[in-house]
Amino acid sequence: MKKKIPTEPKNRPPLKHRQFAASELARCGYWSTPAQKIVKRWRKIIGEQWCRHYMAQCAAAVFTIGSFEIEPYSQGHKSYIFEMLLVLHKFWNDRQKPGPWLLEMGDIGSGMGFPPRPRNFDQIQQRIKAQCGIWFDTRALAQAAKRLRLNDRIAQ
To answer: Is 32 contained in some domain?
Structure first.
């Protein structure tokens, strides 16, 4: 009798069946071009639901200070998580592009010592200029926000 070789649970939903709102995935950088390249390659292997499932955990590990533990469902998922962590780290630290700035500015809430979240692209432009001296055109900020699907969080 032949033994069946176990395959990756591609279509099986994550253990904690969690649906992510589009805006929550957007705040994690899921729609950034580098992250989408990884997702496009891995969704054929582990499935779109698993890619979305790990995204919030990967983003928390990269965008926050401190340690963060990610528990993969199976060994095959470790490679996806590792690649996504590397891509998000590279994306987050490329401050010559507007994407990381929009993710940072969009998540800063009022309270906890942070200034209130910028409400429009002019305020974001001024805050970036004040923090690091880089001047992004408001059209470039708007295009990046559209690409990252952050438009619902920022007024035009």
So the answer is: yes
Using CA atoms, how far residue 99 sits from 47, 63, 115, in Å, is 26, 13, 20
Q: How far apart are CA 145 and CA 127, in angstroms?
A: 16
Q: What is the pLDDT of residues 83-125, one digit of tens each?
A: 998 999 999 888 899 988 888 776 543 334 456 666 678 888 8
Pairwise CA distance, residues 84 & 40, whole Å: 12
d(CA 146, CA 152): 9
- For 47-70, the pLDDT digits (tens) are 888 888 888 888 888 877 666 677
Q: Are residues 85 and 110 in the same domain?
A: no
Q: Tell me the chain's radius of gyration from C-alpha atoms.
A: 18
The C-alpha atoms of residue 93 and residue 63 are separated, in whole angstroms, by 10
- On whether the CB atoms of residues 106 and 155 are closer than 8 A, the answer is no
Phi, psi of 93 (to 5 degrees): -90, 0
pTM of the model: 0.71
User: Which range marks the domain in which residue 141 is found?
Assistant: 98-153
46: phi then psi, degrees, rounded to nearest 5: -110, -10
